[in-house]
Specification:
2 copies of one chain form a homodimer. The first copy, chain A, is of the alpha/beta class and 462 residues long. At the A-B interface, helix 1, helix 9 and helix 10 of A face helix 1, helix 9 and helix 10 of B.
């Protein structure tokens, strides 16, 4: 056997790879939003903070704050490579070249700098991580911070396993991934994308998963939200915008009337910025039902909608009905689900929106390609173009894979959210009463402005 | 990333490792039997042939006879290394040093040579592989031939898979192996050995499996029948003798009376040879029931019994009853099952022989350590010392692991059996009517001598 002495010595002295290998290792929509912010809000400040919703996991006990600092400091030293900027300039995104303006790319090259951060640990064992500064300097932190915390927690759990246990951990995760691919493979008309960067097990695992999807699902695999993986593996970069934008615009509004109008004002600015491309609505920031009801007619011309906090069966049907009321053909539109998806729901939603279920079949009856090829169960007859944005349960499904039996690799519910814009508190209501974000008195005020129609889990007033 | 240029070039020009890496890569009992043959039958000739009982698999279509020749020719060039002979001389086997005589080891060093072979393909797509010559030159072929054919068939199937599919194949097999280890781990009093050399998936996989067992099962893992793995990994080498010996002695007998006596004559010779060690009966060659009934009293002094073709629950109970009739304490004896075992049967047999089942529990209720620790189900109260010799379903359980979905990695039922001794046909009846081996007229003759008592599947004469 030939031994690579240099590699052995390196492995012996190893430091693990940095978690963020490139500034492209972020969701593509963050780059689209950054250009939008750079263009329209270059002097606006914005702060973000990391929140661990899985409060039963004491993150600060698992992750050494010193190691997290190292990772965050390392991210701050990164610059966009020339080759990456050339790719952003020359590559085709959503069928169009030149999505990024030369002046923006020049700014990325010369002036982009991640803000500083504040990291402390709290008395209940959590990490408190905040970013403040210019919005253009804080917005990209979201994904770098989430993926760093998620992977450091993975690394801490990996350290407790023996070599055999590590091998079994990944064997189980790969076997599970293959079962998922096997169920999706060959399903006619299916569209799936990777949306799993922020809560991934690790960078290398996400890369493995994305390559496996690309190898097995053929045209059903639409791409990845991870810009770096899209760049490295010639895949489509997927994603358009997030709640951060309507939250900021609403926070900057001076009156309730302006606040209500902000959710549509954003859309106007966005379509100007992107010349009528990348038009995916994200209507749940302050409640989908009020959003659709109050929308100007031109909003129905947008290409599609992403549902993120409402039951996607309900959200899709609501969107279809609204499009019909507005005189648009839903079959020309795109409906994207992106909240906590896994195979069962992806197949069920695909059946629900892409075909006519026969003989009393229900979405739950669709378990694999065979069910979609069974003409007794289903006729392809698209009601709307459906696409699944598959996140955490694609890139971090290690449930019951740990040979030591504990939940050390179960995914955490980590988020990194906008707190303030120019000193004003940011609020998200969402389609789920319990998922609202912001100071309680501000949430109350926003509820007064936007109402509770169509919000799940809202208290019933008798 | 540091690249090992030499390794890359080597991998590019690769030839796969030889399947038989060392003459020690054989079952330990073959070496014990070789010494026995060398001592008592140095001038006896014996022929062996390989039989594929899985006739639906056309081996000659899967395996290139040229590649098989290369492997067999390579095995013929192998010699015992000095270090291996020193280990055979100096190591302790079954608690005793010096099991192998200096003169035998000298003969292994200077004069041992595998016989020539004849390889042809048959019209029904099978390989016909025969070995003839001195018994001392043919006997070791059994394991080298079986493991070579088994691994070449594996390699042929591996060639059809993509890199991802290969990764998934092994991920699934490892995940399954772990489930098996997990069920056995912590079961009080359990004894399990690897008996899987002959029909293994590959050498490297057997090595992986044996190391995993050794790492996870602690004292419950008793060792491996593979001498090379025992040597390389400081494990116990397990095994004593096989059907080949009583078959040969019976074939050499001149009268039916001598033939009946041969099965006990062998035991006398064996205990002389090994000075009263390694005394494990293998009573099923011509039927266990007649063997036990006709055995001289001193046979009951042997340490234990291995059951290979009778339902092991029945065989163990029969042995216990027989020992009691002969006035021996079964709790001092060892009962080894070695026929087609997998986890369910290992746990069931362990419960049956090592404890008292309570409250209507059955062997099938014992699924993992928890069941053995449940005092409502079981009280440890050994009826006999039970040990499991785990073969094909330990080292070659790739059923449903192939990502391409076909049975290309399912284990084959390959055997390599003694045909003739000094020109006389060899016969095995076994405890199963349908598992007899030999020319039909000879089988008939043997049945006349040994009877059919206790033989499963025998035709009922009305």
């Amino acid at each position: 056997m030939i031994i690579n002495l240099a590699r052995r010595a390196h492995n012996h002295n190893w430091e693990l790879d940095p978690i963020t290998r490139s500034l492209l290792d972020t969701d593509f929509y963050k780059l689209l939003m950054l250009q939008f912010i750079w263009k329209h809000f270059p002097a606006t400040s914005a702060s973000f903070s990391l929140i661990n919703r899985s409060t039963e996991v004491r993150l600060a006990d698992l992750i050494d704050p010193g190691e997290l600092r190292e990772q965050l400091d390392n991210a701050r030293t990164l610059r966009f490579h020339k080759s990456e900027l050339i790719w952003l300039a020359g590559n085709t995104f959503y069928g169009r070249q030149g999505i990024f303006e030369p002046a923006f790319l020049q700014w990325l090259d010369r002036d982009f700098q991640l803000s500083e951060y504040e990291l402390t640990t709290t008395r209940d064992g959590q990490l408190s991580l905040r970013f403040h500064g210019l919005w253009t300097a804080t917005t990209l932190w979201e994904i770098y911070a989430l993926s760093a915390v998620s992977e450091l927690r993975t690394r801490a759990a990996l350290k407790r396993l023996s070599e055999l246990e590590l091998d079994i951990l990944y064997a189980r995760a790969k076997a599970r991934l293959w079962e998922k691919m096997d169920r999706l493979r060959g399903v006619p008309g299916l569209r799936v994308s990777d949306f799993g960067t922020r809560r991934r097990h690790s960078f290398l695992w996400q890369e493995y998963v994305v390559k496996a999807m690309s190898d097995t699902l053929g045209a059903s695999f639409r791409g990845t939200s991870n810009t770096y993986l899209a760049y490295q593996h010639d895949l489509e970069a997927i994603g358009t915008n997030a709640h951060e934008l309507p939250m900021a615009l609403a926070a900057l509004a001076s009156t309730d009337e302006q606040r209500r109008a902000a959710q549509y004002r954003l859309l106007e600015l966005w379509q100007q910025t992107y010349h009528g491309e990348l038009l995916i609505l994200l209507p749940d920031t302050f409640g989908t039902t009020q959003f659709l009801r109050g929308a100007p007619d031109w909003v129905a011309d947008w290409t599609g909608q992403r549902a993120d906090s409402k039951d996607p069966y309900v959200a899709g049907d609501e969107y279809i009905t609204w499009l019909q009321q507005r005189g648009r053909d839903p079959r020309q539109k795109l409906f994207i689900a992106s909240d906590s998806l896994d195979v069962d729901q992806i197949l069920g939603l695909h059946a629900w929106f892409s075909g006519r279920l026969l003989n009393g079949a229900t979405p739950a009856d669709f378990r694999s390609a065979a069910d979609f090829l069974d003409t007794q169960k289903w006729l392809p007859e698209p009601r709307i173009r459906f696409s699944a944005g598959w996140g955490t349960l694609l890139t971090n499904d290690f449930r019951n894979c740990n040979p030591q039996g504990d939940g050390g690799f179960n995914p955490l519910s980590l988020v990194c959210k906008l707190n303030e814009v120019d000193g004003r508190p940011a609020v998200k209501l969402s389609d789920n009463f319990n998922k609202s974000l912001g100071p309680p008195e501000e949430i109350e005020r926003y509820r007064g402005v936007f109402g509770l129609e169509g919000i799940a889990g809202a208290p019933v007033i008798t």
